[in-house]
């Protein structure tokens, strides 16, 4: 079970994993990649490493980590951090141990102009054919 926890410290979030005798969530969402990076000025190799280490160093033994890049409560990654970092941040989340979590559309760099746009559903499909995923498929036109 995943749980959405809003807490001020990593220690508070870790309590939601529970204990060996009284397990709670399989994982509480790790919002520190959102909370610690509001703009490119906050982002560096050192700050990313510190945020990853903060979670891993406090993770209870035998518990599963996760990496949340975006959610419905925040502006999208491309709007917060820029479109040039989408691929790198998604790659990082996929290569870290644990479960990567993304909000629909973030994997293709969908942006927004505010929180109201973030909540729009369903995600609009890109206007270009097949998103460049497979050029062997028939293309329109």
Automatic annotation (TrEMBL):
Glycosyl hydrolase family 13 catalytic domain location: 1-110
InterPro entries assigned to the protein according to its UniProt record, in alphabetical order: GH, GH13_cat_dom
Pfam family, one: Alpha-amylase
Single GO BP term: carbohydrate metabolic process
Superkingdom of the source species: Eukaryota
PANTHER family named among the record's database cross-references: ALPHA-AMYLASE FAMILY MEMBER, NEUTRAL AND BASIC AMINO ACID TRANSPORT PROTEIN RBAT
Record protein name field: Glycosyl hydrolase family 13 catalytic domain-containing protein
Organism, scientific name: Scylla olivacea (Orange mud crab)
């Amino acid at each position: 079970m995943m749980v959405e926890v809003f807490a001020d410290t990593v220690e508070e979030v870790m309590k939601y994993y529970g204990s060996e005798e009284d397990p709670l969530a399989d994982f509480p969402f790790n919002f520190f990649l959102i909370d610690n990076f509001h703009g490119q000025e906050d982002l560096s190799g050192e700050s990313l490493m510190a945020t990853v280490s903060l979670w891993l160093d406090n993770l209870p033994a035998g518990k599963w980590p996760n990496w949340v890049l975006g959610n419905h409560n925040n502006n999208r990654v491309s709007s917060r951090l820029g479109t040039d970092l989408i691929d790198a941040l998604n790659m990082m989340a996929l290569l870290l141990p644990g479960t990567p979590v993304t909000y629909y559309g973030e994997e293709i760099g969908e942006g927004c102009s505010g929180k109201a746009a973030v909540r729009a559903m369903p995600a609009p499909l890109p206007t270009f054919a097949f998103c460049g995923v497979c050029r062997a498929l028939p293309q329109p036109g």
